[in-house]
């Protein structure tokens, strides 16, 4: 009689129970990306101020400066996100017994999470620092001119400029003893309220023209023309500022999307190095 021997083979169903997300690696990559972004923004601010000239027909044009600033935002996002994503992938925990496709997905997610955290941190904490860096030169110039930094940075500084144009004295006019400070403040409020709503109402235009005629000695017709010209200049400046803000938003959106892609891709590379590194490793 033949005796059949049956061997029992135990199949291991062990599953890797390590967490799918290494938050320490994500935080490390995000901090690195945020810090590098601040450094590059500081460098770009310095280079940008040096390329802008206060003199006409010198330095770069406004359109060229806007395009250069947009491209630089994309470069900053690529560099900072790539380094942050690579760090997140390189420092994450090694997963044992996980399929290659799953590892690739997790590494991509680590890079994306690092980018997202760096973006949130940058929006919450680095905006003020970047604004101070970017506004340092203008604040210094404003202080030297005797103008407050708040007025120079906001719309109030522009209104003051237009008020100066309205109240520019006529050399042939007789001196006026009316309180100029109160008059300027009143006209500034009229311009601010009117331009905020799109245009200055007709009664306010008439009143301002009367004030300008009294202050400068111009005829009523010339005062009306000066008021209209200055209001048109102010509206044009506001429209240009709106268009510049819209373009900056588009450049910023593009830089954020490219940064997310760069961080995710770099994290997969960092994860590959993490899993396959050995003293004699020289590449794939």
Q: Could you please describe the fold and organization of this structure?
A:
This protein has helices spanning about 25-50, 60-90, 100-145, 150-155, 155-165, 180-195, 200-215, 220-275. The radius of gyration is 31 Å and the shape is rod-shaped. Helix content is about 75%, strand content about 0%. With about 280 residues, it is mostly helical. It folds into 2 domains: about 25-145 and about 250-275, no CATH class; about 150-240.
| Count of helix runs | 8
Task: Tally the beta strands.
Answer: 0
What Rg, in angstroms, do the CA atoms define?
A: 31 Å
How far is the N terminus from the C terminus? 57 Å
**Low-pLDDT residue intervals, each spanning 5 or more residues:** 8-14, 136-153
**Helical content (DSSP H or I, runs of 4+):** over 70%
How large a portion of the residues is in β-strands, by DSSP E? Answer: under 5%
Summarize the main sheet: none
Query: Structurally, how many domains make up the residues?
Result: 2
Q: What is the approximate shape? A: rod-shaped
Structural class: mainly alpha
Which whole number gives the mean pLDDT?
A: 76
In N-to-C order, the SSE pattern is HHHHHHHH
């Amino acid at each position: 009689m033949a005796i059949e021997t049956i061997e029992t083979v135990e199949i291991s169903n062990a599953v890797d129970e390590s967490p799918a997300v290494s938050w320490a690696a994500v935080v490390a990559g995000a901090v690195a990306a945020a810090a590098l972004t601040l450094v590059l923004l500081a460098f770009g601010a310095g280079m940008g101020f040096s390329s802008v000239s206060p003199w006409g027909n010198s330095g770069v044009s406004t359109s060229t400066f806007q395009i250069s600033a947009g491209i630089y935002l994309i470069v900053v996002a690529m560099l900072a996100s790539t380094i942050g994503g690579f760090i997140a992938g390189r420092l994450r925990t090694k997963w044992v017994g996980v399929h290659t496709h799953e590892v690739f997905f997790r590494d991509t997610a680590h890079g994306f999470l690092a980018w997202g955290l760096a973006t949130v941190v940058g929006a919450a904490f680095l905006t003020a620092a970047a604004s101070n860096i970017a506004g340092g030169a203008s604040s210094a110039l404003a202080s030297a001119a005797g103008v407050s930094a708040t007025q120079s940075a906001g719309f109030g500084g522009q209104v003051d400029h237009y008020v100066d144009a309205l109240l520019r004295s006529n050399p042939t006019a007789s001196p006026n003893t009316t309180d100029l400070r109160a008059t300027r403040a009143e006209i500034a409020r009229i311009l601010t309220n009117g331009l905020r709503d799109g245009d200055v109402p007709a009664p306010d235009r008439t009143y301002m023209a009367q004030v300008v005629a009294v202050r400068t000695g111009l005829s009523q017709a010339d005062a009306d023309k000066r008021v209209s010209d200055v209001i048109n200049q102010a509206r044009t400046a506001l429209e240009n500022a709106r268009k510049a803000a819209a373009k900056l938003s588009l450049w910023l959106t593009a830089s954020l999307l490219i940064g997310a892609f760069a961080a995710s891709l770099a994290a997969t590379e960092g994860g590959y190095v993490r899993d396959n590194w050995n003293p004699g490793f020289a590449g794939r």
